[in-house]
Amino acid sequence: MSKYAMVIDMDRCIACHACEVACRSHYDVPVPYYRNWVHDLRPEGVYPDIKKVSYVGLCNHCDDAPCVKACPTGATYKRKDGVVVVDKDLCIGCGLCIEACPYGARYIDPVKEKVDKCDFCIDRVEQGVEPACVATCIASARIFGDIDDPNSKVSQLIANGAQPNVSSKVNVGPNIYYLDSHNHFPVVQAAFPPKVPNMPTPQKMWTKVLRPLFWLAIGGSFLGQLAAFSTQLFKGESDIKE
Amino acid sequence: MENKNIKLNDDIVLDHDLLKGPRHLSFDEKRILATRVMKKHGVGGVTLHWVNAISWFLLIFTGTALLSASYLQFAPLWYINMMDGIFGTRGAMLHFHIAVGVFWVTTLLLYGIFGYKNYLLDFVKHDLTIDKDDIRWFPAKAKNLAGKLNHYEMPPQGTYNAGQKAYAVVVAFSTITLMITGPIMAFHIGSTTIIQWSMMLHFVATMSVFAGVFVHVYMAALFPEERPAFFSMITGKVNELYAYLHHYKWWTEIKNEEHAFFAEELKKDGIDLPALHDCKNIANHQVNSKVYDMNGDEL
Questions:
Q1: Which among B90, B200, B207 has the least Cβ separation from residue A90?
Q2: How many CA within 13 A on the CB side of residue A154?
């Protein structure tokens, strides 16, 4: 079984945004949103020791994906090949997965009113073509492949020290790895740390307070009626006319 | 005299104060009352009840299978997988849930709009309004269930007893909540925050109804004393013994209406009937120690 992952080589990336544009045009992503992004950070440091860092990001297709757990209907699910996808038929646009995602990789499509995100271009991959962002990258800064195969390029790059964007607080097993030899990755991690998955107030209220209460009420009324019915069965019935 | 064809049965003697409540009946009186029927629900009410029940059945069975997130999950996983299998895909199940929901909301809206005067207003004003007897009913019923209070000492009840009224109010509010929150989720009306709150309220409303539904079904379909209520939801009618014992205030109300009708008929013949509670006999009206039947003939 294959398990897909991506390595982003920060040494090779020139922040040209071609991957972002390729993705946007391929999936008609409306402008304020991204399936796939390049966030340019302000230059850092004092001349001549200056860094200009860009954060190349997309859905991390996490092993322990908080969005999959948050989705009430199971519209967001993890395929066997590790790709986290959205079943648009099932999505009700509640946005719980957006609150849960540590990487801000999801948005509600304002036209379809359903959630959308990177799916590793799984339709292309299944036909043996690389994802649009990988195919378009002029510097080959994006490497896509199967990490279950130890001979694949991604596996080798990960063995060479590519690391995922995780923190001591949040580690949900992301599958996007960053290769970096100029100490740029810590800058990205400081600017875009994975955020703790959030559950909105109504869902918290339901889970913590209301659901146990209703279980009690339903269980109580069911058991009460069961007791009454058993008594009725044991006693036998008397005709009300007499 | 008109209405010569109207004949009345033998009847029970009302030797008690009608306003106070039911009394113990003799076997013969019970037998007579049990053979007579009174109309409780119109065709509109019966139809709405079953459309509502079938819709709820379908919606509960698909709705519980749609909730697969662990913090929302209600049904076991095998049930969710089974329903997925029945519908093919979960997306198809969601569309079915929405389609039944749209049908249900439309039916209720039609009932509310076209039946406002004939059904809804009457139902709310006449059947759901709470009075003192209803408030006294709850502690009395608790004592009654504990075997400490005789059935005849219970506060007399109207068309519906206080328990039924309380559940009806919960169902009414839940229904309105579901009619609003359902379309919000199905058609993505409003922001994600609105959809998230709708989701929670949708569950709260459903569970509120669900918590009472066991009592509702058990009482109507299985509990021997209330069972006539189940058949009344098919035929629209209940026997008078049930009405006398369980919905006494409603029974006297109907009897008063009948009495008023008789009184008017007899007035044409120059006979004045006393008020119902002054009569000793409910069908064969006794006037000045003389008993008249429906035709105004002296017995």
A1: B90
A2: 21
